[in-house]
């Protein structure tokens, strides 16, 4: 199957997210079949619950055994706390992510039509 066929067969109208799911997430699933829950603290107020691109993106990740949970709010997005739980192995990792180059992220968001939060999560 060619990349263009993969994109056309995807649930996404967004070619960039289709490539991300098909060529990154699904390849990862071949290597690792564990189930994960990723809790992200600090982005909730920046997410529009009606954003269909994010809704589909989260659904597609969930179908690939990666659940994204958006927890709590922060006033800014310069640093977010992330907890990655491996449900299969009952392990958990916590780390902080510094969001850098926000103007570039916004520019990429505009060019790809992927919400800023989607860019940060990927």
Short account of what is shown:
The chain has 122 residues and is of the alpha+beta class.
Describe this structure in words.
With about 120 residues, the protein is α+β, with helices and mostly antiparallel strands. The chain has helices at about 5-10, 15-30, 50-65, 100-110, 115-120; strands at about 35-40, 65-75, 80-85, 90-100. The protein has a four-stranded mixed beta sheet with strand order 2-1-3-4. Helix 1 (about 5-10) packs across helix 2. The longest helix is centred in the N-terminal third of the chain and has 17 residues, at about 15-30.
Q: How many helical stretches?
A: 5
Note the run of SSEs as H and E: HHEHEEEHH
Shape: globular
Portion of residues in helices? 40-55%
CA-based gyration radius: 15 Å
- Poorly predicted runs: 1-9
Derived structural class: alpha+beta
The counted number of beta strands is 4
Tell me the layout of helices and strands.
Layout: H1 3-9, H2 15-31, E1 36-42, H3 52-63, E2 66-73, E3 79-86, E4 91-98, H4 102-112, H5 116-121
Parallel strand pairs: 1-2
Antiparallel strand pairs: 1-3, 3-4
Helix pairs in contact: 1-2
List keywords for this structure.
about 120 residues, alpha+beta, four-stranded mixed sheet, 5 helices, about 45% helix, globular
């Amino acid at each position: 199957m060619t990349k263009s066929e993969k994109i056309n067969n995807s649930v996404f109208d967004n070619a960039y997210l289709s490539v991300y799911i098909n060529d990154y997430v699904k390849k990862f699933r071949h290597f690792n079949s564990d189930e994960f829950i990723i809790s992200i603290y600090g982005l909730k107020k920046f997410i529009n619950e009606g954003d269909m691109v994010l809704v589909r993106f989260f659904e597609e990740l969930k179908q690939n055994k990666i659940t994204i949970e958006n927890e709590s709010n922060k006033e800014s997005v310069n640093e977010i706390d992330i907890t990655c739980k491996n449900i299969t192995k009952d392990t958990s990792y916590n780390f902080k992510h510094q969001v850098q180059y926000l103007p570039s992220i916004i520019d990429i968001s505009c060019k790809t039509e992927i919400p800023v939060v989607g860019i940060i999560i990927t």
